[in-house]
């Protein structure tokens, strides 16, 4: 109960009851109770109170005798509390005081109210008339908690020590094997620690705060002993649990590291194995747009599979970075090595995928340009294969311009194809053996031969088209020249017709005198020279058309139309011109003779002795007048008059007037001849 006798020895109370008491259980209980106090307390001895008020004498005697075997050295006094009605006379047959030497302790029979003679009232419970506060069930519950805590903590300490000591073994394999066998304790350390803290708090609270009744309570020796035990166990538990947590952390870290290492190797093995094998089988670039697109689609499937592993790589890289930030030096080297290995493999594989994607994209662009160029060449060739039958020079010029534009477009397309092809060849040449883990010279040679073959084929097709364009250009230029010659020849005919028309309509005057007529005759000769040049120019153009037609192997329309027109107009012009010359020359002779006679002085009649001059002038004048009334007759039988009738009448009237003057002059000359005989 925590009570003490006057020698400071602990008081042990054995309450007996009416039921049969098991001595074995009592012996075990006494052994347990006597194991609780410290050795120092045991040295002060015990005072045992055997409460026999509710028991029989023989039971009390047996208990007292049993104390001899259980605690003979520690018991200094045994107080047997007798009932108010004394036992029968049997008690007299056994006197405890006479057996003191044999028992080893003093036994007294005492009534409950007289226990205070031997023990202070404050050290006795209320059952014996004392004032000591004691709750046996409370003590028992706390003792059970203490015992459970002690048992669990001791067992837990052994387990933790085994685990912790196992983690300190030398080799890695022994440490992992030890941790695997004893990794989980049988009880939860947190629960045991919480129980210990609650128990210690309860013990300390009862020690310093006193009982509920406010009366100062003297702590039991077992509680004084329990507190340091609990504290010691808690300290040991905390120490071992801290080490255990570190072991768990190390184990968790090691497990995490092993998982990371395992995942890293999975990523590395897949990328270097199936992933690289997928790329090894994909080396071609295709021979057309469709083939390149199919290869691109296949590559996208490969990229999709790689993306899943790259996602694992990102996650692993984040985990490794987190572990590196934790700063455990012993794992830094291994973690960095894993991170470097993973990064090297992933970046190398990503570079291979990117290289392959760029190569396929370049191949697709190359084949796209090649297809466009091939279509352009087909269109140009189709245009060249169609025979040219233009209507005029303008359509030929337009066709020639379209041809030049198509040829220029082909040149640009071929240049673009060469650029794309060279870029693709450069990429292929940079494809070293490390790219796919094997020698790719053979595969590259096939790709290079294909690219060069496409470019050479396009170059040959373009060269053939250029040759055909040169021939077609020459032919079309000759046709342009032919049309130009025909147009110019037709223009020459028009000019000559205009000259003829001008000759007939405007070249009418014959002059008022000889001088003016001579000027008109000179102008007419120049006019004829212009017409001759126009005719010669037309003839040359028509001769050129004949040559061009022979070169172009076509029938000249000029030979059947323009040339006859030119000759017909020229003949008409020639006839008209000759008529004009004849009239002008007659007019010159008429005016010259008439003016000579008219200008002769009348005082010299001897100059006119021959009258035949007058007759000649009159004959010339009449001939001229007759020609003015006669039309120009062309070789084809057609007729054409110079000017209008009024114009001809005006010219004839002027000649008649001059003829009258000549006639008058003649008469004047004749009058003197008539008057001479009369005189």
Automatic annotation (TrEMBL):
Keywords: Repeat. PROSITE patterns: CRAL_TRIO (PS50191). This is SESD1 protein. Residues 1-136 form the CRAL-TRIO domain. The gene is Sestd1. Belongs to the SOLO family. It comes from the Eukaryota. It comes from Cardinalis cardinalis (Northern cardinal). One of its GO terms (molecular function) is phosphatidylinositol-3,4-bisphosphate binding.
